[in-house]
Specification:
The protein is mainly beta and 282 residues long. It folds into two domains: 147 residues, Immunoglobulin-like; 107 residues, Immunoglobulin-like (Sandwich). The protein has one helix and 19 strands. A five-stranded antiparallel sheet has the order 1-2-4-10-8, with no helix packed on it. Strand 18 and strand 19 form a beta hairpin. The radius of gyration is 22 Å and the shape is globular.
Length: 282
């Protein structure tokens, strides 16, 4: 999978260059924050739903359960599989449906209730915002007929939705990460060369951070070739396979030096280095 883009499902790819400092925007819908973590004694959080469009929009809100695949795609699950720990039974939220006027926002409040016997670990579900179809306007066959128009047609309106992870942590949690299987992949079509690799995760919490690739020529200074923010490997996944397209400066040859890959916690979490690996290029 390319880290420059991904869509839910194996058939496509979603832009990963977003960071928590900016809202998640999809058409006229914007959400902030784009990820919620409830840990220790934290019992509440909130999400701002913003309508940047020119008409009122209605959104239905649900909690859904998903597992991340090995290449970053999300798979909807009806029941937990091995190692899955969902948070939906621990969460309450309000409201369940909202209508947001253009240029306005709506706060969705989330509460967590942990039972006394909740086992240590990380629990995750996703808060899903689905746009509700607008029944107004001349979008039906009946209305087309009343207008005197002899041609019958169907107006198709795209329904926009988005989701954010809501993570509940209980007790002591830890994660360990390694980077393996680094390989320089040749350019394909209009895309430049890429670095393929594998992120290996162990422990009872997710890995979440920023990736960076640098090339250091023998005897020269390092040059950053790629950077991706806010990349997760969720529990219970032991690994994630990925590749990053490299932006190689004109005139630079990827030879006679070292490609270095780093994976750091996000700056707001302390910026700790979680894993590093390198690939020597003859």
């Amino acid at each position: 999978m390319y880290l420059s883009s991904f869509l839910p499902g194996r058939a496509g790819l979603l832009t990963l260059a977003l960071c928590l400092a900016a809202p998640l925007a999809l058409a006229d819908l914007a959400l902030y924050p784009t990820r919620i973590v409830l840990e220790k004694n934290q019992r509440a959080a909130q999400v701002e739903l913003m309508n940047n469009g020119t008409t009122p929009e209605t959104y239905r809100i649900n909690l859904v359960n998903r597992r991340m695949g090995e290449t970053g795609e999300f798979i909807a699950l009806e029941a937990p599989g091995p190692g899955d720990q969902f948070a939906d039974a621990l969460l309450r939220y309000s409201p369940k449906q909202v209508t947001v006027q253009p240029g306005s926002s709506q706060t969705v409040r989330i509460l967590v209730r942990k039972p006394a016997d909740l086992a240590p670990g990380e629990y995750r579900s996703h808060l899903q915002f689905d746009r509700v179809a607008d029944s107004a306007g001349a979008s039906s066959i009946e209305q087309s007929d009343k207008s005197g128009d002899k041609a019958i047609g169907v107006v198709i309106t795209a329904l926009v939705g988005a989701s954010i992870p809501v993570i509940v942590r209980q007790g002591e949690t830890q994660v360990s990460v390694t980077l393996t299987d680094l390989a320089l992949l040749p350019a394909a079509g209009s895309a430049g060369p890429a670095l393929g690799f594998q992120i290996n995760r162990s422990g009872n919490r997710s890995a979440y951070g920023d990736l960076a690739v640098r090339f250091t020529p023998n005897g020269g200074k390092p040059v950053e070739l790629a950077k991706v923010g806010a990349l997760a490997v969720y529990v219970p996944n032991p690994l994630r396979r990925a590749r990053m397209t490299l932006q190689v400066p004109p005139g630079m040859a990827l030879a006679g030096g070292t490609l270095s890959l780093s994976y750091r916690e996000r700056a707001e979490a302390g910026g700790r280095m979680m894993a590093q690996a390198s690939l020597n290029l003859p």
